[in-house]
Specification:
Blueprint (H helix, E strand, L loop, with lengths): L2 E5 L4 H11 L4 E6 L10 E5 L5 H8 L4 E4 L9 H22 L3 E7 L23 H20 L2 E7 L1 E2 L6 H6 E2 L1 H13 L5 E6 L11 H5 L12 H9 L14 H4 L6 H4 L2
Parallel strand pairs: 1-2, 1-4, 2-3, 4-5, 5-6, 6-9, 7-8
Helix pairs in contact: 1-6, 2-3, 3-4
The structure holds D-galactaro-1,5-lactone.
Length: about 270
């Protein structure tokens, strides 16, 4: 595994992952719709919109493994989600298959499962319960990954990422936090593990307040190093500054659940 393509390289998570990837792999090709100028000696930039199959074909040339962070990363209008995360995601997998790329890591999201309650403990065998159009697109991306693994022989890991950053930001993030080092470790497992065919894992660090059963990741050798609880005091203080969200606070997806909510709490799990 030498030549890695990182899509969405200019985004927040991409920026945190770049130094870790380039420290480990011989070449990292960065793609984004916006130019990246501060390239390290073993980084190369290719401008690629996910809606442009020819640009994606060029980006995938000679690539062994892809870390796909590209796309729209929060809730948005259906047209935006559809073009970046449905059509764009499909284009990316098609380009990968045609170029003979062996592995894909897909940045899925906790929002594919956001309507599970905070008192639930969920693994990867429960049905998806997306909390947004964005969450629906992530569930779609996971299905596409399974399809390309089974039908076309790619090795695919979809990581249901919680919230990536140097520390957990609030109470909800204490349950779903993912330090960039631990994300990198998961990416390495997906890119290098000899027995990985297709896997969905949760992207979380060592979170005492976790809602997730992450045994698939642990079985593949994941050993997270960062502890959310070390930051509990600060995160809980930050929580006190946030406006109340009686619906969001019931569910794992938080504000993604409460925005535009017109459901029936007696049925959807209040
Ligand atoms: C995500 O999937 C988003 O990409 C990120 O911006 C955060 O909102 C995160 O989930 C979260 O749930 O905190």
């Amino acid at each position: 595994m030498q030549q890695i393509l990182l899509t969405g390289a200019k985004g927040g998570v991409g920026t945190m992952l770049r130094p870790l990837l380039r420290g480990h792999y011989s070449t990292v090709v960065l793609s984004d719709r916006e130019p990246i100028e501060d390239l390290a000696p073993n980084e190369r930039f290719i401008r690629a919109e996910l809606t442009d199959p020819a640009a994606l074909a060029a980006a995938c040339e000679g690539i062994d493994g892809i870390v796909h962070l590209g796309g729209y990363s929060v809730e948005g209008p259906w047209e935006t989600i559809h073009s970046a995360n449905i059509v764009g995601l499909w284009n990316l997998y098609e380009a990968a298959r045609a170029a003979g790329v062996k592995r894909v890591i897909f940045a899925s999201s906790n929002h594919a499962m956001g309507f599970y309650k905070r008192r639930d403990r969920i693994g990867v065998d429960e049905p998806v319960r997306p909390d947004s159009r964005y969450g629906v697109s992530k569930a779609f991306g996971e299905a596409v990954g399974a399809f390309f693994a089974d039908k076309h022989g790619l090795r695919v890991m979809s990581i249901r990422i919680g919230n990536v950053g140097p520390k957990p930001l609030d109470k909800r993030r204490l349950s779903i936090w993912l330090h960039p080092d631990d994300l990198f470790q998961l990416c390495r497992i997906g890119l290098e593990h000899p027995d990985m065919h297709h896997a969905i894992v949760y992207g979380e660090s060592l979170n005492e307040r976790s809602w997730w059963d992450n045994r698939t990741a642990y079985r593949l050798g994941y050993a997270p190093e960062h502890r959310a609880e070390d930051y509990a005091e600060v995160a809980l203080r930050a929580q006190d500054e946030l406006p109340p969200d009686p619906i969001g606070d019931l569910f794992q997806g938080g504000t993604f659940c409460s925005m535009e909510y017109a459901g029936d709490l007696t049925r959807s799990g209040g």
